[in-house]
Amino acid sequence: MADTSEIDPDLVRSYKFPETTFTYTERDVVLYALGVGACARDAVDADELKYVHHEDGQQFVQVLPTFAALLSQGSIGFDLPGLQFNPRLLLHGQQYIELHKPFPSSGCIYNKVSLAGLHDKGKAAILEIEAKSYEKESGELFCMNRMTFFLRGAGGFSKSSQPYSYTNYSSNKVSAVEIPKSQPFMVFEDCTQPSQALLYRLAGDYNPLHSDPMVAKIAGFSRPILHGLCTLGFAVRAIIKCICRGDPNLVKSISARFLLHVYP
């Protein structure tokens, strides 16, 4: 539990995250595409080869829209004043992505990160962070990510009987989507590989929860679990293939909730 005397709401709300840069190459783009299953079942998949290979005279590989989640990955800090938690007990709860322009296959990005919310849930804390990623040279906005993290054991820091809750989300925040009761008009089946988490971690998320059996057991899992963003990449790749006619640029926003853990 966090020490209830350590968190100052005013300090938390005014905390400034450092601006960071992120440089990526075509190799990073290809590794990411392979990490989320592109061409895993068919090495010459007509819809997906473009993510890993220059086909039909194209000059560059195309970038999957969920690559946007990686741009601010190194910018996310959890060192808010007074907030104490065990990193092994952190879970990724939600991810929202807005895409403003297609990504080039290589580039340099700078990120502006801000606190979007902090909520005391008693036995846990919910931390919400917003990151806007800009092309460094032109200053154009590429994308915006909102991430929600569930910090087990970090709650109980409220100084009053009313649990502390702060948010700076706008009133037009995306609402939860209800699952239709009708049958789906499109079905796509895919399968992760046993080593999927080990491959996906090459995209830059080296949390041992996804690779170390002992860390996974301490966190309450029978074995390492798959990254939530890897599952998201599989899902959006399927949507592009089945509904967007293979065109990744038709995806403009993505909203996901990670309700349960996934084993590769």
Structural notes for this entry:
There is one protein chain. Strands 1, 2, 3, 4, 5, 6 and 7 form a 7-stranded antiparallel sheet that branches. The chain is about 15% helix and about 25% strand. The chain has about 260 residues and is α+β, with helices and mostly antiparallel strands. It has helices spanning about 10-15, 25-35, 70, 195-200, 215-220, 230-240, and strands at about 20-25, 90-100, 105-120, 125-135, 140-150, 165, 255. The protein has 6 helices and 7 strands. Residues about 1-5 have low confidence and may be disordered. β4 and β5 (about 140-150) form a beta hairpin. The radius of gyration is 19 Å and the shape is globular.
Question: Summary?
Answer:
With 264 residues, the chain is α+β, with helices and mostly antiparallel strands. It has helices spanning 9-13, 26-35, 68-71, 196-200, 213-218, 228-242, and strands at 20-24, 90-99, 107-120, 124-135, 141-152, 165-167, 253-257.
List the helices and strands and how they pair.
Blueprint: H1 9-13, E1 20-24, H2 26-35, H3 68-71, E2 90-99, E3 107-120, E4 124-135, E5 141-152, E6 165-167, H4 196-200, H5 213-218, H6 228-242, E7 253-257
Number of strands: 7
- First and last CA, distance: 31 Å
Percent helix, as a range, is 10-25%
The share of residues in extended strands comes to 15-25%
Major sheet summary line = 7 strands, antiparallel
Average pLDDT confidence is 87
- 3D shape: globular
Indicate the structural class.
Answer: alpha+beta
Order of helices and strands: HEHHEEEEEHHHE
* Uncertain stretches: 1-5
The value of Rg in angstroms is: 19 Å
Alpha plus pi helix count: 6
